[in-house]
Design goal:
GO terms for molecular function: DNA-binding transcription factor activity; transcription cis-regulatory region binding. The chain is an alpha/beta fold. The chain is about 40% helix and about 15% strand.
Length: about 350
């Protein structure tokens, strides 16, 4: 069954059928229901070329993915993409990824939009004063930012986790357990989420009359290897920290390995809290000592980004941009306990 045959079967134009299948409001509910029923019974699925000709839409969401020799593959990125792809599949949307060198990312985004290959796209890995936002606002298709950008007026659509509040809460918990020597194993310093997580730690420590020494703060790619190296160096300090905050369970995996190698006990000698993106292959409850975390699902965030973009395409929203800030859940497990001198 092709579009022409379905058109002849129903006595409707091919344009009307395409618009009915894609939820356009000018098609009345009775006609839409009739078209949907016939499409289901005949097994009709519109071709992408026909869809684009009939509606002017590609039926695709897009992303430009920065790629270079010095960039690591990122399990966090893959988990977010999984959620987004699942939502695209549920709505019969394609998901287009265009690789580009980081120095040519803006050029690649413009090319992707002007090609007509996508109807909407999202921006990820936001930096402070990120120039991509102004560029995105100047283009003709909807976009959503995953994260925010410090230094810019928040007049753009976004979905973000309250990273500052999450790490302030985690730090306050450790302070209440009597800890006074802290360290932060953070993500790359140019990324907005890492900046906000450090702000949260520093805010809570300032409230207790403490500060976070520069020597106790690291900014690295979030891998097991980096977590191990940084933690090993911290344990060599004359006054080693007793409270460790990690920007990811992947960093925490390496940090815990270093603590174990030093003959120390997590939750007794050193307390550890990590941010948990709900990665299916790295569950914090499966650590040898179950890990206390601030939890917010990256897969759920991916689904929500796709859901919002697809909804924007169907309704053409007006008014101020929708902005969502999710609160992370503090999940207490055995990796946190009283400071050693408080036992």
């Amino acid at each position: 069954m092709n579009l022409k045959q379905l058109s002849e079967l129903l006595g409707l134009s091919q344009t009307t059928i395409s618009r009915a299948l894609n939820g356009y409001p000018e098609v009345n509910a009775e006609t839409r229901e009739r078209v949907m029923k016939a499409a289901s019974e005949t097994g009709y699925r519109p071709s992408r070329a026909a869809l684009r000709l009939a509606t002017g839409k590609a039926g695709s969401l897009g992303l430009v993915m920065p790629v270079s020799e010095d960039r690591f593959s990122d399990i966090h990125f893959a988990e977010f993409q999984n959620g987004l792809a699942q939502e695209c599949l549920a709505h019969d949307f394609h998901f287009v990824i265009i690789p580009a060198h980081p120095s040519k990312e803006e050029q690649a985004i413009r090319g992707l939009v002007h090609s007509g290959a996508v109807d909407a796209y999202y921006l990820a890995y936001l930096r402070q004063n990120d120039p991509r936002i102004a560029m995105a606002k100047s283009l003709s298709v909807p976009f959503i930012v995953h994260g925010r950008s410090l230094g810019l007026t928040e007049d753009y659509p976004y979905l973000d986790v309250d990273n500052e509040a999450a790490f302030a809460s985690a730090t306050e918990m450790l302070l209440n357990l009597g800890h006074r020597r802290f360290a932060l194993l953070n993500g790359p310093q140019e990324l907005d989420f890492a900046v906000r997580r450090q702000m949260g730690v520093e805010r809570a420590l300032k409230g207790a009359g403490l500060h976070l020494p520069k020597s106790a703060t690291s900014n690295t790619v979030m891998t097991d290897e980096h977590g191990y190296r940084v933690m090993t160096d911290l344990l060599r300090q004359p006054q080693a920290p007793t409270a460790i905050l990690c920007a990811s369970t992947v960093l925490a995996l390496g940090a815990v390995r270093a603590i174990n190698d030093a003959g120390l006990v997590v939750g007794e000698d050193i307390s550890v809290i990590a941010h948990d993106d709900d990665l299916p292959l790295l569950k914090p409850e499966h650590f040898r000592v179950p890990l206390t975390t601030t939890r917010s699902s990256l897969r759920d965030a991916g689904r929500r980004i796709a859901e919002r973009l697809i909804a924007d395409l169907a309704t053409s929203p007006s008014g101020p941009p929708l902005q969502e800030i999710w609160q992370a859940e503090l999940v207490v497990r055995a990796s946190t306990g009283p400071a050693p001198n408080k036992r």
